[in-house]
Amino acid sequence: MKKLPFALIALLACGDDGMVTDDSSSRDIGTPDVDAGSGEVDSFVPPDGRYEIVGGDWSMPAGEEGYVCVRQTVPESVFVRAFYPIAPEGTHHTVVTLEYDSAWPDGTANCAAFTNGPDMIYGSGVGTEPLELPEGVAVEIPAGAQILLNLHLFNVGSAELTGHSGIEVVAVDESEVSDVAQVLLAGNESFSIPPMAGDHWVEGNCTARADTTIFAVSPHMHQFGDYMEIRAVAGGTETLLLEDTYSFDDQQFSLLDAPVALAEGDSINVRCRYQNPTSSTVTFGDSSLQEMCYGAIFSYPPLPNGSITCSR
Prior knowledge:
Number of strands: 23
Structural class: mainly beta
Number of helices: 0
Oligomer: single chain
CATH architecture of the largest domain: Sandwich
């Protein structure tokens, strides 16, 4: 596998049903404080074609964590071949999804961990570097779709943090695109790690609901995870996609040497190993003090899962 310097710490704020949460109740909770923004795309496109497609300003009190959502509707279809995260200190991760026929206006507001659209197109986190998709592969953002950037902010310091987080992209003409891709999080969403547990394994599976081809994978756990395996099971034959030690601060995307085709009914198996030296049970959850077991699967065409996660 060819390793890309792409930390996907982002891939943890995902709901069970993949539907957008009504976040009106979270807009006045006061954590975090948010500067209102228009979310408008900068009309200036640099010589390399890179521009900010969505981004917003935020502030986070010392010792707190919370969520900010930035929404931006695109007036015409965009085919993205490369992503560049804007992630200053305090940006724990981002999840980028698409919402259609949204009732929420463009702009920036407080939200919740599970405020996500039904289709995931990107994620980023601490130390994330640019991600360039293989030749001919792109992520499509259809005309009229609303980009929903969910920012998980975590201030571990003793002073308030402020920043501007977002995503820059490089677009490609539709004529250069042969395959349209999306991201799916495969794993286990119902587990716990006992106190003082060593080498505790958790396993999850995702059944493909349609034919698809996997071309890149990335692990995602939190601070108790130290090893992950991801396998594709196609026609009864297992193919190892990822087998590596895990670091919370270094979650790399791996482009597969050869893409792996799955047929409807085939599966993705994810195994995660944890070390819990504390006297408390660690449960599944979006906080970095809880745990997750996800393999981020980049494939084309997108799987019609109805959610950005798959755990069955």
